[in-house]
C-alpha cells in the first residue's frame, strides 16, 4: 500500500529510535569508560569482551530475524515486539551499568559478559522488528525517506541529550560518585524508554500486510546471498559507523587526557551529532530527487571520511580546526544516516523482486549486525 504517512505517525515511529538509542548511545559514549574507570574492569578485558560479544550478536541477530519472520498476531508482525520486548531490554540497560564494584576482577568480567550479551539479545529482539516495521508501514518512497530522516534526527538528538545530561554529571567526579550517577540515569532512561516504545507502538500501523508461509532457513539464507545491494549497503554502513563510533568512543578519553577538560565532551558530541542533523535535513530530499539515494549516500560517506581524517590529524594541536573538521564529518554522517534506512527498506523489496521470498526480519538482522560491528 502506497500510503502517505502523517507527521504524527512519523514522529511516533521516531520515538522508538530514541528509546533504541538509550541502549546504543549509552554503549557508544560511556560503556568502555564505565568499565575501566568506574567498575574496575581492566582495559584489555573490557576491549576483548566488547569484541567477542559481537560474535554472539551475529547469532542473536539471526535468531531474532527468524523469530520476527515467523510471527503474525492481531497486532501485526513487528509491533508486538515493541510492546512485549521493551521491559527486558530496559532492565538490561540498568544491569550493564550496575557492575558490583566489590567483586573480584574475574567475577566482574563474567558479570559484564553475561549482562552485555543479555543486552545484545534483547536489543536484537526489539530493534530488528522496529527497523523492519518501516517496510510494513508504507511502500511510498517519500514516506520511507521521511521515516529514515526522522530516525536519523531522533538518534542524533538522543546522543546529544545524553551527552549534555550525563557528561556534566561525571565531570571531575570520583569513581564512587560516578557509580551513583550511572545508576540514577540508567534507571531514568529505562523508565523513559518503556514509555517511548509504548507511544511508538500506539502511533504505528502495519499497512503493508503479506500473509505467507515462513521460508526455511536455507531458502532465507539463499535469498540473502543473492541480495547484492544489501551486502553493498552493509559494507558502506559498516565503514560509516566505524568512523563515527571511533570518534564517539574516544571523545571522553580525548577531552579527559589530551585536553584535560571533560567539560568539552558535550561540545564534541554536540558538533558531531547535532550539526550534521540540522545541516543535512534540508539537503537530503533535494539530493535524493536529483541524484538518487545511492549517490547521495556515497557523497555523504566521502564528506564524512574527509572530515574524520582531518579531525584525527589536527585534534592534538588545534581544537578550533578540529571542531571545524568534526562539523564537516557530521554533515556527511547526517546525510548517510538519513539515506541508510530508506535504502535498507528498498533492499527488502529488491530481495522479494529477485527471489519471490520476503524476509524483512532476516534482512534487517544482517543490517543490524553490521551496525553493531561498527
UniProtKB/TrEMBL annotation:
Pfam family, one: MFS_2
Alphabetized UniProt keyword annotations: Cell membrane, Membrane, Transmembrane, Transmembrane helix
Gene Ontology annotations for the cellular component aspect, listed alphabetically: plasma membrane
Membrane topology: Multi-pass membrane protein
GO-annotated biological processes: carbohydrate transport; sodium ion transport
PROSITE patterns with a match to the protein in the record: NA_GALACTOSIDE_SYMP
Keyword Cell wall biogenesis/degradation recorded: no
InterPro entries: MFS_2, MFS_trans_sf, Na/Gal_symport, Na/Gal_symport_CS
Subcellular location(s) per record: Cell membrane
Gene Ontology molecular function: symporter activity
Keyword rRNA-binding: no
Transmembrane regions listed in the UniProt entry: 12-35, 41-60, 81-98, 110-128, 149-170, 182-201, 230-257, 263-284, 296-316, 322-343
Family stated for the protein in its record: Belongs to the sodium:galactoside symporter (TC 2.A.2) family.
Name by which UniProt lists this protein: Glucuronide transporter
